[in-house]
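Amino Acid Chain and Its Fold in Token Form
===========================================
What this section holds: a protein sequence and its matching fold, both as plain text.
Structure line: whole-number tokens from a learned vocabulary of local backbone shapes, matched to residues.
Purpose: to set a sequence beside its fold so the mapping can be learned.
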Amino acid sequence: MSYDEGLAQRIREVVADRQGVTERKMFGGLAFLLNGNMFCGIAKKEDLMVRVGPARHEEALREPHARLMDFAGKPMVGFIFVAPPGHASDEALTRWVDWSLAFVSPMPSKTSKPVTKKPVTKKPVTKKPVTKKPAARKAPKK
């Protein structure tokens, strides 16, 4: 397992009464979504991934144990990582989860669309006319 199952269970308990919460494995961890919008998750085994929104990003980074979330060297504004000491207590975890839920709650629901395959249409093959090369003449024998 690439994420802390104990932390996942604690998050489940925080959001137990909330309608529209689902889970999805992504980022090598586990993400929690509200009506299809990711609000938090677990990455790098035990880091809490929190979606705080761009407007409160700097404020969140000033909190103890919070740091910039970057994937493949690219900072993701509006998302942060919280190290385990920052979500060790149930009160701290609930505060982070509530913060992220407050950001995604007003967002429109994302409904998963069924994946439809594009019909394959074969283009007619146009053959080039074959042109015969003139046969090479043999030189007369001497």
